[in-house]
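Dear support,

We are seeing what looks like truncated structure output for some complexes. This example has two components. We would appreciate it if you could run it in full and send us the complete token output so we can diff it against ours.
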Amino acid sequence: MPIVTSLDVSAIREDFPILAQQVHGKPLVYLDSAATSQKPKCVIDAITHFYLMDNANIHRGVHELSERSTLAYEAARGKVRGFLNAANTQEIIFVRGATEGINLVAQTYGRTHVGAGDEIVISALEHHSNIVPWQMLCEEKKAVLRVIPINDRGEIELYAFEKLLNPRTRLVAVSHVSNALGTINPVREIIQTAHEFNVPVLIDGCQAVQHMKVDVRNLDCDFYVFSGHKLFAPTGIGVLYGKEKLLEEMPPWQGGGDMISSVTFEKTTYNDLPYKFEAGTPDIAGAIGLGAAIDYLDQIGMEAVAEYEHDLLQYGTKALESISGLRIIGTAREKAGVLSFVLEGVHPHDAGTILDREGVAVRTGHHCAQPVMERFGVAATTRASLAFYNTREDIDALVAGIHKVKELFAA
Amino acid sequence: MINDLYQETIIDHNKRPRNFQLLEDANRQAEGFNPLCGDKCKVFLKENNGVLDKVTFQGAGCAISTASASLMTETLKGKTIAEAEAMLKKFLDLLTTDQPVPMDLGKLAVFSGVREFPARVKCATLAWHTLRAALRGAGEAVSTK
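Here is the complete output from our reference environment:
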């Protein structure tokens, strides 16, 4: 395999101070970035600087600090726009995370467009956050939730998807990349097909934005959501992108300050986009941190990230495949960032505890995707997930840890 | 040390769980589960004049929860209900307090190592919480969440 030289991983690792520590007396090997990513120092510094120097509420005061904080918050919105290649900043709504973004769409677009007997289509790969909001909506509206099946590799069955679409379909909501398996879904094809039926599509990009270049105009998706904390930014900030036309016609979600133009007891006029959907004081520092993370990624380049991680994932896949008694769950031809597996005769929680004592941090369990686990006939898996700060040495440490697990359980 | 957690007894009981069967003539039983990890456990008791003649279990879970259930059934067979209640309290104390390990726990003392792994305490106690539900006839599924 060629060694990728376009990305200097040792320099990158120095940008993430948290990685340079020992746990249980072993160097930390962080392979849980799909749960949450680590934060580069520049992101931490941006938040610290904000609270040390600029903190004030936004869109309110005439004083200097309020001006600075408003500028920084809106600059972050501009950075997100550029990152997603959205047409304009009105289309970028700051939310708490992808979960809130999906709930916002379900409660506004969904409640105004979905009625009794209508249908919403999701996939069998979804995280609970892209299942439950739609179930709640369907229950309220007496609508029907349809699920696109997946094959044994963990890939969406496109031909089955086409058959699910019909005049009652009101929305399609699918993940860009599966959190449990790492499958990259053919979202462009899904969007094109849905649009032939005039059905809008929401893409959950939680596990995609940190691994590849995402261009919402090229995808032509109607909504796109992601969480900042998986993109090397802090927790508590996320993004909902929506096409302006759709966002304009959607009713507001939460009411409060900042989302209004004028309020009397008789009538309230709502604010323009994007503020219509940002009631209350937002996570200003979080947005600024997200902006700093995007600046950082811009320097590295998402193409270089994707290329480096592709190589690392291939290396990891080969390494795991060589371990007897290990079965990789999710073997899609197009994957990003995730190595999910089960070990014969060993429960994932036991594997996770033993790996932890070797310094290797992985996620064990159902990954908030119980239907995916059921599809593969397992209760849980061990999931190693990658970011561009991981190395082949991290994979080697994982493999050594797995051998230790097998050794302990061979007794 | 990881070997303090995965002692030979635990590995052995995970691989070859004792009394791992449905008890047709059970007169008390309960079901327990841990919603966070999906572990399940059913405990069956055949009680006769205050004595546990038979104790069995079924379920699916990690090595800690399986071995804990297996050793529990071995330990409690032939014990009175009062003795079982006392053992239950002693076992939960072993895992959830810093008290010195009691001398009369027998094989169950291997679980003292779990104390050093707080995330795994619920694995070890699942079978015992289920036992308590069976003894007290709560009849509802218990959850260790």
